[in-house]
Amino acid sequence: MKSNLTRQQAYELLRKYNQEPFHIQHALTVEAVMRWFANDLGYGQDEEYWGQVGLLHDIDFELYPEQHCVKAPELLREGGVGEDMIHAVCSHGYGICCDVEPEHMMEKVLFAADELTGLIGAAVKMRPSGSASDLEVSSLKKKFKDKRFAAGCSRDVIRDGAERLGWTLEELMDKTIQAMRACETQIREEMDRL
Q: What does the alpha-carbon distance between residue 141 and residue 136 come to, in Å, rounded to a whole number?
């Protein structure tokens, strides 16, 4: 899997349509989490591609929330993104805002991890440390069960994502927490440069 863009070009494309720090941070987080998973799951040679899919997955959300994953192909094509990456980006919205089903391992990881990074991010904000470094799966599961906590994060999508991967919910949570621990400092530094 090869991207038509450099990481810098992908970042500039993201920034063309996204200005809100919250959306930028989410894109950077999902990018880093996807890179971590690529290496963890034995797809290290495709790390750049996995990362760019993560970086661009919500490219249309800030400006076109009602057309999420519908407007994305047009914006991505204008930016020179290939059709395989467009499919991957759109697949994270399967059953929510589009009918592009996640097929490849990378697409399944994106589908599962995207919503979960939001839940973990919200849980981290509630912690005295403000960090994922001391977040345990048991604590995250309690937050997961509380429907009012981070209500915008779909528990059904997270469950479905774990199932598509053939993982338990705990396994998906554990890996995603590890991925977010690994990238916390880097993302904080990138956000400080905005």
A: 9
Q: Can you tell me the distance from the alpha carbon of 71 to that of 77, in angstroms, rounded to the nearest whole number?
A: 10
Mean pLDDT of the chain: 96
Q: What's the whole-model pTM score?
A: 0.96
Q: Cα-flanking dihedrals φ and ψ of residue 133, to 5°? A: -60, -30
d(CA 34, CA 176): 9
The pair of structure tokens assigned to 140 is 């995250």
Q: Is the pLDDT of residue 131 over 90?
A: yes
- Contact (Cβ atoms closer than 8 angstroms) between residue 194 and residue 21: yes
DSSP characters over the chain = ---SS-HHHHHHHHHHH---HHHHHHHHHHHHHHHHHHHHTT-GGGHHHHHHHHHHTTTTTTT-GGGTTTSHHHHHHHTT--HHHHHHHHHTTBTTTB-----SHHHHHHHHHHHHHHHHHHHHHHSTT-SGGG--HHHHHHHHH-TTTTTTS-HHHHHHHHHHHT--HHHHHHHHHHHHHHHHHHHHHHHHT-
Q: Residue 112 in contact with residue 91, Cβ under 8 Å?
A: no
Q: Given CA atoms 99, 103, 108, 114 in this order, what sign does their dihedral have?
A: negative
Q: Which residue has the tokens 């038509």?
A: 4
Alpha carbon 103 to chain centroid, angstroms: 16
